[in-house]
Amino acid sequence: MRTPILLLAAASVLATGVAHAQSNALNQRDVAEAARQHPEVVQEFGGAETGPRAAYVERIGRKVAAYSGTTNASQVYRFTTLNSAVENAFAVPGGYVYITRQLMALMNDEAELAFVVGHETGHIAANHSRKRQQASTKNSVLGVLGVLLGSVVGGGFGDLIAQGAQYSSQLRTLGFSRDQEYQADQLGIRYITSAGYDPLASASMLSALGRASALEARVQGRDNRSTPEWASTHPLSQNRVTQASNVARQTGRAGNGLRNRDAFLSQLAGVYVDDDPAQGIIDGRSFTHPDLRLQFVVPTGYMMQNSTSAVAIEGSAGKAQFSGGRYTGDLQTYVQRVIYGLTKGRTQVQMSPLQRTTINGIPAAYSIGRAQTSSGMVDVSVMAYQWDRDTVYHFVTLTRGGQGLNPFASMVNSLRRITPTEAASIRPRIIRVHTVTRGDTIQSLANQMAYRDFKAERFVSLNGLAANAALVPGQKVKLVVYGARRT
């Protein structure tokens, strides 16, 4: 369940052309639409955090937005912290800015946080988000599964899935143009400089994102997580950090201004990293949900991405989604409703007769259908499980015509109930802020990281350190450790 951020080549744009890109007042129709869709976005991204950390992000966001040139900026912009394992930040027309706890974990001070919210505010002030929404309509990204599964058969999958695009799914799949990203970076630098922050925080934040992206590329395939959202929606470039640094230096304030590292780290302490056990966790090839007491295992080489309502699975031979919940009725009717929900009846899917079976003691039923798309024949399969009297879970898979469930046979046969002991053993990963003492080394602290591999690499990436850096007593660093067991 992960976004960075781009700079026009001429640094002088910061003082000239960028200012003309801003609007004075938010469009009231955008404001109303953003307010209407806010609950949906929050739900899809794990819910909104509340409490001191959320209030802190809101306060920094309003402080930075005050310099955006937007009328009543400190009142019209809203900043929401999301309980999501996706490293992401995004903005929508109407003044709503979202940032995930996972992205915050990459940051090392308040100035970096200010730059990210400033960058997203810049997208709104320059009307980038509205243009992005219009582009998504033209591209016809249709339906949750249209977004999730579309690349199996290319753009033609839009013929099959005609449910109507979910707004938040569009946000994750459609990035801004390169020029828009550069412009938003420059606006963010301008805002944070005016707010009293060190403009070089832009470069250090972009460096952090680059490190995380490079590390993710190394570990991908071992932890079975799909590519971070921000890696695709906010593409990084090799010269981006240099450009941000150059623009920051032209402000005359580089190296000066607030960083507020200690204040930021105090807010970050205890934040969840990666999955929230309440939403289920990805560990290697397995997905385990301690509250629902279930587990399944994806095929070797397949990746997963977790959200509040579903788990997305993707690999070389197809894509799938796992979801379900409360339902009273028979499995045949349930499967029919799932198929109808995918197509809204607009596309004919020829489904095979329902086949009943038992998987790990769980009554199950499946049907395999076929549909014609502009890219060829597609097999759509549904495997549903009668978990208890009024709960059903299911996989939907999408594969090339003729393959049916075969690429996912091991996965659909792996769903099982877990024991209370297994459920109780699951612990969240959290940020612990550690004050370096004499004798601490990168390796000794990395050994405390709650991962099975790449411990030292994760530690230095998380803290923006060189691999051979010497730690100084009194220095504060972040560790990812296991939190308390859930009761």
Automatic annotation (TrEMBL):
The record's section on PROSITE patterns has: LYSM
Which N-terminal stretch is annotated as signal sequence?
1-21
Report a single Gene Ontology molecular function. metal ion binding
Pfam families in alphabetical order: LysM, Peptidase_M48
Cofactor(s) of this protein: Zn(2+)
Q: Which UniProt keywords apply?
A: Hydrolase, Metal-binding, Metalloprotease, Protease, Signal, Zinc
Membrane-spanning residues = none
Q: Which domain of life is it from?
A: Bacteria
Q: Which GO terms describe its cellular component?
A: membrane
Gene Ontology process terms (BP):
proteolysis involved in protein catabolic process
Q: What is this protein called?
A: M48 family metalloprotease
Gene3D superfamilies linked: Metalloproteases ('zincins'), catalytic domain (3.30.2010.10)
- PANTHER family named among the record's database cross-references: METALLOENDOPEPTIDASE OMA1 (PTHR22726), METALLOENDOPEPTIDASE OMA1, MITOCHONDRIAL (PTHR22726:SF1)
- Pinpoint the LysM domain residues: 432-479
* Coiled-coil annotated residue ranges, if any: none
